[in-house]
């Protein structure tokens, strides 16, 4: 009686991949806000003191906003891919687990950046986290498209759209990271603008539509 290799039947449920991804993203987004702490009531006795206590929280607030946008953008990107996959296999499941590994790292890299916002090392580690997210998402699509896992009725230009969006976004993130040579604040501002663009998705020039 012929036997079926285990690897041929493992990891074939797209629904389970999507469910796990939603849970990991939800937890990561929740962990981001845990670094925000309200000033101790005992240390505040006036409006002026409250404003003074809130000022040091600005780096944490900026890092939280940036990372929440980052996770939102990559969640949409992953869901877009999953919605156009006909099926999964063991290798694709592990690629997405690698992607989720990068997602779970973001609360740490965010906390590091918020604590050391003026240090290039913290900014570059945060950027490398984004690079890892992009590489794993691109790897997912490349694997699926080369192994017949994409739906047959998918739009003919879907491959260009998916990979083009990742390449353009990662190129812009790289420019943003390079700006830390001048100022980490300038670098962060540039990255936030990129994220707002992709979150709002306005009508822009052709090379930014990806």
Question: Could you characterize what this model shows?
Answer:
The protein is mostly helical. The protein has one domain (11-208). Helices cover 71% and strands 0% of the residues. It is built from eight helices and no strands. The model has no long low-confidence stretch (mean pLDDT 84).
How large, in whole angstroms, is the Cα Rg? Answer: 20 Å
Report the β-strand fraction as a percent range: under 5%
- Helix content percent band: over 70%
In angstroms, what separates the terminal alpha carbons? 51 Å
* Total number of helices: 8
Q: What number is the mean pLDDT?
A: 84
Overall, the morphology is elongated
Please tally the β strands and state the result. 0
The tally of domains stands at 1
Order of helices and strands: HHHHHHHH
| Biggest sheet descriptor | none
Structural class call reads mainly alpha
List low-confidence stretches.
none
């Amino acid at each position: 009686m012929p036997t079926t290799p285990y690897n041929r039947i493992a990891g074939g449920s797209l629904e389970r991949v999507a469910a796990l991804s939603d849970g990991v993203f939800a937890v990561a987004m929740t962990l981001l806000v845990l670094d925000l702490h309200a000033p101790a009531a005992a240390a505040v006795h006036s409006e002026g003191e409250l404003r003074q206590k809130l000022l040091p929280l600005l780096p944490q607030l900026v890092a939280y906003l940036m990372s929440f946008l980052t996770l939102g953008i990559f969640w949409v990107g992953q869901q877009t891919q999953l919605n156009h996959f006909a099926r999964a296999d063991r290798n694709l499941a592990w690629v997405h687990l690698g992607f989720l590994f990068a997602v779970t790292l973001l609360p740490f890299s965010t906390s590091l950046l918020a604590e050391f916002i003026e240090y290039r090392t913290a900014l570059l580690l945060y950027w490398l986290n984004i690079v890892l997210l992009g590489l794993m998402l691109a790897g997912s699509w490349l694997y699926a498209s080369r192994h017949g896992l994409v739906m047959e009725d998918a739009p003919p230009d879907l491959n260009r759209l998916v990979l083009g969006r990742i390449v353009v976004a990662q190129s812009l993130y790289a420019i943003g990271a390079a700006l830390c040579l001048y100022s980490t604040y300038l670098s962060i501002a540039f990255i936030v603008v990129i994220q707002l663009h992709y979150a709002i998705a306005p009508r822009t020039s052709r090379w930014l539509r990806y």
